[in-house]
Amino acid sequence: MNDMPLVVARGLGKAYPKVHRNRDRLRALGRLLFAGTDRDRISVLRDVDLEVRRGESLGLIGENGAGKSTLLKLVTGVLTPSSGSIQVGGSIGALLELGAGFHPDYSGRDNIAMSATLHGLAGAELRRRLPEIIAFADIGRYIDEPVKHYSSGMVVRLGFAVIAALKPDLLVTDEVLAVGDESFQRKCVQWMQDYLAGGGTLILVSHSMYHVQKLCRHACWLRNGEVAMAGDVFEVTQAYLAYHERKS
Fold first, then answer.
1. 29-64 pLDDT, tens digit each
2. What is the rounded distance in angstroms from the CA atom of residue 206 to the CA atom of residue 51?
3. Which phi and psi (to 5°) does residue 51 adopt?
């Protein structure tokens, strides 16, 4: 296994202007234009140091609003940092939001072709792999229906089927296991286990400590935008569960 870090974050932070009303947006824009900065900002992520090596599996845990999805979007390049730095080496497969990247008026089959092509799978290779991707999604006749007619679980099936065929260096996923039905969850978990056994790297956001413990060797607990604890998955998840016991 290559021991070089695949993801390295140093002092990573993300902040947004306070914009509750239209005049707030104008005020924030004016500060940026004339002062070069906007100090009246809401910080959603602060001073995060993170390192994920090839072949490792990291679970991101924390309450809603803790900054988990923001951190994933920084890793995948959807967002740019307000402070610090993030470096990622290798291809990324991301399942972050339901339907992201899919055209609602196109069929599942057409969306698979478009998504796979954007990820570099095209031509004869795409034609060869298409039956395998459709079989993994296992949505029957709906494969030729517009995606706008799909349930949330069917959208996840389609997205995960494309990622499974691509086998990226790094898989980043946000609560995808919470949406699919029981049989598809088992299929996804089995695929992720095989993917990790083959040297893949995983960053998983989940509120299910069962899935985090089953799939991840390490965990990072975010609380109010900061790292509360990081390390062995069982130690971190037990501390997180104890925290909720105290709260309740």
1. 555 565 555 556 788 999 999 999 999 999 999 999
2. 19
3. -140, 125
For the chain, give me the number of helices (H) and strands (E)? 8, 9
Q: Are strands 218-223 and 226-232 parallel, antiparallel or unpaired?
A: antiparallel
DSSP E strand boundaries for the chain: 5-17, 41-53, 57-61, 83-88, 92-95, 170-174, 201-205, 218-223, 226-232
Instruction: Read off the pLDDT of each residue in 69-88 and give the average, rounded to a whole number.
Output: 93
Q: Which two tokens stand for residue 241?
A: 């569960």
Global pTM reads 0.84
pLDDT per residue as tens digits for the range 119-152: 888 788 888 999 999 999 999 999 999 999 999 8
SS3 56: coil
Beta strands across the sheet bearing 92-95: 92-95, 170-174, 201-205, 57-61, 218-223, 226-232
From the list 181, 204, 178, the residue with the least C-alpha distance to 193 is 204
d(CA 77, CA 150): 28
Q: Are the CB atoms for 174 and 124 separated by under 8 Å?
A: no
Could you read off the pLDDT of 17-27 as tens digits, one per residue? 775 556 655 66
| SS3 assignment, position 221 | strand
Measure the N-to-C terminal CA separation of the chain; round to a whole number of Å: 43
42 beta partners: 16
Question: Rounded CA gap, 156 and 150, in Å?
Answer: 10
